[in-house]
């Protein structure tokens, strides 16, 4: 019991000292650090492990297993998945066709690396962008897109399985930084 009490006192005094270490006129604030994740090597697209094994490596397995794996890969090529996209336009007015084309063109000019889709489902014209596997990817992209299209929102859609490569993938960490008080 005494040891626990002593440990708590030491931790409290260390945290009090850390707070006192902030120079006058400054405060500690949370800051986000975005670290890019490694992109998937596009040279491996369409390859199997058997195509990229180094010379001298021999794999012994039944031909039935290899055929089953190749059949599975072929059957998944056109697979539809539930994912997320960001809707930047949704309207049914008389000028909706022209406005949707303009929104699509504007988005493609501002964001050349992100896929964009225009659709019509009576009576609405829609423009959705991106192919996001999960909602967190869509939320990360939504922040940037909302600056250009303030009414943008996330929708769940079915689409063909998107490519693994995601050059905009990143990890977010939080750290404390000093900020000058005005």
Gist?
With 182 residues, the chain is α+β, with helices and mostly antiparallel strands. 34% of the residues lie in helices and 31% in strands.
> How many distinct beta strands?
6
Q: What low-confidence regions span 5 or more consecutive residues with pLDDT below 50?
A: none
Widest sheet: strand ordering: 3-4-2-5
Determine the N-to-C terminus distance.
46 Å
Output the number of helix runs.
4
Rg from C-alpha positions? 26 Å
**Biggest sheet statistics:** 4 strands, antiparallel
Provide the domain count: 1
The helix/strand order is HEHEHEEHEE
Structural overview:
By secondary structure, this protein is an alpha+beta fold. The protein has one domain. The protein is 34% helix and 31% strand. The protein is built from four helices and six strands, in the order H-E-H-E-H-E-E-H-E-E. A four-stranded antiparallel β-sheet has the order 3-4-2-5. A two-stranded antiparallel sheet has the order 1-6. The longest helix has 19 residues. It is flat, with a radius of gyration of 26 Å.
Write the layout of secondary structure elements.
Blueprint: H1 2-20, E1 26-36, H2 63-76, E2 80-91, H3 96-110, E3 116-121, E4 124-132, H4 135-148, E5 153-160, E6 170-180
Antiparallel strand pairs: 1-6, 2-4, 2-5, 3-4
Summary tags:
182 residues, four-stranded antiparallel sheet, two-stranded antiparallel sheet
């Amino acid at each position: 019991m005494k040891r626990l009490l002593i440990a708590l006192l030491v931790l409290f005094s260390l945290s009090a000292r850390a707070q006192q270490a902030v120079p006058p006129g400054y405060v500690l604030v949370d800051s986000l650090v975005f670290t890019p994740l490694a992109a998937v090597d596009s040279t491996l697209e369409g390859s199997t492990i058997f195509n990229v094994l180094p010379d001298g490596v021999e794999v012994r397995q039944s031909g039935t297993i290899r055929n089953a794996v190749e059949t599975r890969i072929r059957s998944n090529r056109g697979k539809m998945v539930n994912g997320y996209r960001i809707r930047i336009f949704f309207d049914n007015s008389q000028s909706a066709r022209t406005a949707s084309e303009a929104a699509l063109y504007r988005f493609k000019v501002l964001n050349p690396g992100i896929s964009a889709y225009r659709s019509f489902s009576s009576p609405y014209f829609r423009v959705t962008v991106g192919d996001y596997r999960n909602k967190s990817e869509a939320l990360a992209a939504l922040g940037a897109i909302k600056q250009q299209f303030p009414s943008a929102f996330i929708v769940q859609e079915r689409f063909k399985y998107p490519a693994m490569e995601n050059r905009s993938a990143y990890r977010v960490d939080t750290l404390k930084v000093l900020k000058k008080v005005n």
